[in-house]
Predict the structure.
Amino acid sequence: MNNKIIDDLNWRYATKKFNPEMKISSEDFDTICESLRLVPSSYGLQPVKYIVVNDKSMREKLLPLAYNQPQITAASHLIVICSYRNISPNMVGEHLSLMSETRNIPLEDLSKFGENMNASFAKLSTEELCEWTAKQAYISLGHIMHSCANLRIDATPMEGFNKKSFDEALDLTSKNLQSVLLLAVGYRSPEDNLARMAKVRKSTEDLFETI
Ligand SMILES: Cc1cc2nc3c(=O)[nH]c(=O)nc-3n(C[C@H](O)[C@H](O)[C@H](O)COP(=O)(O)O)c2cc1C
């Protein structure tokens, strides 16, 4: 087993009490942002947006919309992981252009790929599209938790918030976005007893089946 990976994963826990005085350095926060930029997604489309809420008054406004969970205001940084509500042929076109420029592939060579994408999105209702893009946001969550642990930065994944109210408070619908998850990042308070509790996990035998 790779001890570094396992140590990182045992070190991390869903932090309840952050130390509000401790802020993540801009260098470490840049690493977090770059890690999020490198998250894989279906078709490579990245139908997500990360909204970093630094504004103190906005964090206070969001607090009751997340059942007063203390991480909202105490964490060094609060990231609202959003996904797009709709994927237009225009967005697909932008993705193809980026691919073409980045890899120096003629745009015409990507047209079939674009047609396939557009055809599969056209079959989905608005709700199904929202659900599909939200799944992509969950990939970001899993990925960033490990990156943070590697940096010894605490991170709490959160879906305990009122999405509709967050969408309104952050004016997300007008931007074709929906809030999916929150990620509170910072440094644990020594008073957080959860940090000292053993991990509750099923056994390997329970979780895996080899066929
Ligand atoms: C998708 C997701 C949503 C979660 N939502 C919350 C939340 O709203 N508030 C919270 O304190 N913890 C939340 N958690 C943390 C879980 O309770 C925690 O990850 C789980 O109990 C395992 O504990 P550990 O992360 O400390 O190992 C969430 C975790 C996940 C993966």
User: Anything to note?
Assistant: The chain has a mean pLDDT of 97.
